[in-house]
Design goal:
about 160 residues
Length: about 160
């Protein structure tokens, strides 16, 4: 189980790192673009990018041998991610006032719809909103993937008789 969790955690942070790099670049472009046309293109790109990221991250986290441990894996990855981020924050490595608009909390890859809304409308969400919403989304995703697998397993048992 630990080896599985470690693999998921590594994938999780690879995605987070790549996303953070790409978004930092696009955030700079977004601020520098003056024409309305450029803004529109970037907003469309953000929609496509976040949509695909949401799907990819969901697929990676669900690639595991022990299906019944989905829920535990989500919670574990979420908690470890938060701990790492808060250690970095306490060490002065992260300035939340600047970084919260970009993808920064680990569980935010599950929060892409909210980030998309804040990017398009220019709203700034509170850090506690991200933490609570991340936790709720992690739990919901863990429960939903588990429920569908239990249904699938039940169907195969019924068909065999």
């Amino acid at each position: 189980m630990f080896k599985n969790n470690l693999k998921i955690l590594i994938y999780y942070f690879i995605i987070l790192g790549i996303t953070y790099g790409i978004l930092t670049g696009f955030d700079t472009l977004y601020q520098n673009s003056t024409t309305q046309f450029n803004n529109l293109i970037l907003k469309i790109f953000f929609i496509i990018f976040y949509g695909s990221l949401f799907v990819i991250s969901g697929k990676i986290v669900s690639i595991k041998e022990h299906y019944s441990k989905d829920f535990l894996n989500f919670i574990l990855v979420f908690i470890i991610g938060l701990i790492i981020i808060f250690i970095a924050y306490l060490g002065g490595g992260i300035d939340f006032s600047k970084d919260m608009n970009i993808l920064m909390l680990p569980a935010q890859i599950f929060l892409s719809p909210f980030i998309l809304i804040s990017t398009i409308l220019g709203w700034k969400f509170n850090i506690m909103f991200y933490v609570i919403a991340s936790f709720i989304i992690s739990i919901l995703m863990g429960l939903s993937t588990r429920r569908t697998r239990v249904k699938r397993r039940y169907k195969t048992k019924v068909n065999k008789h």
